[in-house]
């Protein structure tokens, strides 16, 4: 059997990490089995649509490197085009298909028009709640004679179409995650298939589309588990073979509540904007509810595809641990080649006003110096062990991308060191640096010369390296002074040492 799976989001806002996990698991499953991964847009809930919602979904998938074979695609000019032989892939363009299927269900007695007004339904619900009874439709219109229902429909009387469900027995199925599952039919009410505005509900549209688009496996969130018996009964009414179902566990906050916007960022684009790498997010999200049964924690996309199995998805809720994500992202940042890391970091440095993009690299805004990817990588290398995200880099490396850092002169003094002693150290450092060859201003040579200076004069490391570190960075906490010197180069080091002397003399 050829595998066909889908990601079927509603364009009602930015992509929640839970929705992205659905996309990712379907993508991994399709790639694992050499199948087709397609995107379908479920936009039948017209009240909840947001402008550019479809474009946002497609951009987020592209930013995360999740590609599909069929469905809507975003052109470079921002227009949407659909590709594939089983479209349209946008449900609002499939209304005639749903109407045809509804008429078939009504004709066969598996569905019926319901003319109950919203006011009657609201009153019914209030009565049921007051009597502490389960809420649900009382099937009043189910008793209408088919001829009467048909006549009232033809006159244009406002109505919905409901699924006529069995009132006894059980609906059972095998879930790839949860095993054998069964529901009592008498607890299911005759839910709405087609709304009065002519748009289908999720239940009808997803069943019809999954069948016509030949979906073999439905991998979706746990919140749809209780709807599955309705869907299976609908497949039965149509005489169709249902797909295999796999319901993923809920994503939870650390307090075990459902992951929601009220407790922090939940949109994929928020994490990208905050400097998390797509490959780190993929690695992290893949492990939210799926366990490949080994001790490994870092997985590339090819490894995830090779190891992914539906049977290894857990049924218990998965806690979204931000600290784990930070740790993973730091690991990925440190594993990237420096030139590639520079390319990833550059947009954050540009947004912070530190760099300006040019055709052959970047220009440092404070000073005008030009940087290649290798130059920028060297700058970033000093701080990438200390940051968790790309968004933290601008503040971390800002002192390296300015002519002379600003700081109070008092900071140069090591534990109340006399000013004259600090000046003597700076003068000696200037002389040492000035005597070095600019072309061989390497970390090894710098460290050897400066340590030789300290030892030759019988000075302490703290009272020499502290003012050197502050003169170079302006900060109390920074990378080591030798590493900073190697990145800055001879002339910048001299300028910063001179500026430090001026601050003490001011």
Describe this structure in words.
Helix content is 43%, strand content 12%. It has four domains: 4-91 and 251-319, Rossmann fold (3-Layer(aba) Sandwich), CATH 3.40.50.620; 94-248, Rossmann fold (3-Layer(aba) Sandwich), CATH 3.40.50.620; 336-401, Glutamate-tRNA synthetase, class I, anticodon-binding domain 1 (Helicase, Ruva Protein, domain 3, Orthogonal Bundle), CATH 1.10.8.70; 409-505, Arc Repressor Mutant, subunit A. Strands 5-6-9 form a three-stranded antiparallel sheet. A three-stranded antiparallel sheet has the order 14-15-16. A two-stranded parallel sheet has the order 1-2. It contains 19 helices and 16 strands. The chain is of the alpha/beta class. The protein has helices at residues 17-32, 53-63, 95-107, 118-130, 146-154, 202-212, 228-238, 268-273, 278-286, 301-307, 322-335, 338-351, 373-381, 393-397, 419-434, 443-457, 461-473, 481-488, 490-505, and strands spanning 4-7, 36-39, 71-74, 80-83, 111-114, 160-163, 170-175, 179-184, 192-194, 217-221, 244-248, 251-252, 318-319, 355-358, 361-364, 370-371. The mean pLDDT is 94.
Please tally the β strands and state the result.
16
- First and last CA, distance: 81 Å
- The SS-based structural class is alpha/beta
CATH architecture of the largest domain: 3-Layer(aba) Sandwich
Number of helices: 19
Shape: elongated
As a whole number of angstroms, the C-alpha radius of gyration is 32 Å
Number of domains: 4
Strand content: 5-15%
The percentage helix is 40-55%
Low-confidence stretches: none
Report the average pLDDT across residues: 94
Q: What is the CATH T-level topology of the largest domain?
A: Rossmann fold
Query: Going across the major beta sheet, what is the strand order?
Result: 5-6-9
Could you give a short account of the major beta sheet? 3 strands, antiparallel
Task: Write down the CATH class of the largest domain.
Answer: Alpha Beta
CATH superfamily of the largest domain: HUPs
């Amino acid at each position: 059997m050829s595998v066909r799976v889908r990601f079927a989001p509603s364009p009602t806002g930015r992509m929640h990490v839970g929705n992205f996990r659905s996309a990712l698991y379907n993508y991994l499953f399709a790639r694992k089995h050499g199948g087709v991964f397609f995107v379908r847009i479920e936009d039948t809930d017209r009240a909840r649509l947001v402008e550019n919602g479809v474009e946002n979904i497609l951009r987020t998938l592209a930013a995360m490197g999740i590609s599909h074979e069929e469905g809507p695609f975003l052109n470079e000019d921002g227009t949407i085009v659909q590709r594939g032989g089983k479209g349209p892939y946008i449900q609002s363009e499939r209304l005639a298909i749903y109407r045809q299927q509804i008429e078939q269900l009504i004709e066969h007695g598996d569905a019926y028009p319901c003319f109950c007004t919203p006011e009657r339904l609201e009153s019914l619900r209030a009565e049921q709640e007051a009597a502490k009874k389960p809420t649900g439709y009382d099937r009043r219109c189910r008793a209408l004679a088919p001829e009467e229902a048909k006549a009232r429909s033809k006159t244009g009387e406002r109505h919905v179409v409901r699924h006529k469900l069995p009132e006894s027995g059980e609906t059972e199925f095998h879930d790839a995650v949860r095993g054998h599952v069964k529901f009592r039919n008498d607890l299911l009410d005759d839910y709405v298939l087609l709304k009065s505005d002519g748009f289908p509900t999720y239940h009808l549209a997803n069943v019809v589309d999954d069948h016509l688009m030949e979906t073999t496996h439905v991998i979706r969130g746990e919140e749809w588990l209780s709807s599955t018996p309705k869907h299976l009964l609908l497949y039965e009414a149509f005489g169709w073979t249902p797909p295999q179902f796999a319901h993923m566990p809920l994503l939870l906050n650390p307090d075990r509540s459902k992951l929601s916007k009220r407790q922090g960022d939940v949109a994929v684009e928020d994490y990208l904007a905050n400097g998390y790498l797509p490959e780190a997010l993929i690695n992290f999200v893949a492990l939210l509810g799926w366990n490949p049964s080994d001790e490994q924690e870092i997985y590339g996309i090819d490894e995830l595809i090779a190891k992914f199995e539906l049977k290894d998805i857990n049924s218990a809720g998965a806690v979204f641990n931000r600290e784990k994500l930070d740790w993973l992202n730091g690991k990925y940042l440190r594993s990237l080649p420096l030139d590639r890391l520079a390319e990833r970091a550059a947009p954050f440095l540009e947004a912070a006003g530190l760099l300006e993009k040019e055709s052959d690299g970047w220009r440092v805004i404070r000073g005008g110096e030009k940087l290649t990817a290798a130059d920028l990588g060297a700058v970033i290398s000093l701080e990438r062990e200390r940051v968790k995200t790309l968004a933290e880099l601008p503040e971390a490396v800002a002192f390296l991308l300015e002519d002379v850092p600003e700081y109070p002169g008092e900071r140069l003094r090591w534990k109340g060191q006399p000013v004259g002693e600090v000046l003597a150290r700076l003068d000696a450092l200037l002389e040492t640096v000035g005597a070095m060859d600019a072309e061989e201003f390497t970390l090894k040579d710098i460290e050897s010369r400066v340590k030789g200076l300290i030892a030759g004069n019988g000075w302490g490391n703290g009272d020499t390296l502290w003012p050197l570190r502050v003169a170079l960075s302006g900060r109390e906490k920074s990378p080591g002074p030798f590493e900073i010197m190697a990145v800055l180069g001879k002339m910048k080091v001299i300028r910063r040492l001179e500026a430090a002397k001026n601050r003490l003399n001011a």
